[in-house]
Amino acid sequence: MSDDQSNEFNADAPAWVTVEVPATAGGRLALLGFPGLLMGADSLSYIDPVEQNERFDQLYQHGCRRFYSFVHEDDVPADALAQTQQTARQNGIEFCWLPITDFGIPDATTAERWQQQQADLQTLLQQGQLIGLSCLSGIGRSGMMAADLLANAGMTPDQAIAWVRQRLPEAIENPRQEAWVGS
Length: 183
Hints:
By secondary structure, the protein is α/β, with parallel strands linked by helices. It has a domain at 19-136: Protein tyrosine phosphatase superfamily (Protein-Tyrosine Phosphatase, Chain A, Alpha-Beta Complex), CATH 3.90.190. It contains seven helices and seven strands; from the N terminus they run E-E-E-E-H-E-H-E-H-H-E-H-H-H.
């Protein structure tokens, strides 16, 4: 292996997929799994507070000031949402929770709350900010919401889905999620 090719783990590399938002001043979306969520030997999930804090610190260092979690409360341990909100805030990041069931689409309440934030989100992207989007694995719900942001920024839904999938091919996991983008 040559010096410029390495399989070594780089702890400083972002632990998320970045989707550049066209026609902005460098606005970006970070798609990632739920910060600090790990699986124990007993197959039960738990939050590693050190890993979670490191992830939010890393997001902050890359310009993230707002973070959206789309997990459903049944996806994570009982205290995970409160702990994650606290860790995000301690790292200077606003935490927003908009629950969506796994493989699902937003219910009417979540969709309305998301739409109410579109103008502000578009402003943040125009300012070149990084916005964190997270679900359990950072693929389905996060990908769907990233594509919806792009559709609200002027892309057609098909263009938005294709744009997200250029960076994360498995994003947006089913036809219902595809159909919801831009709706």
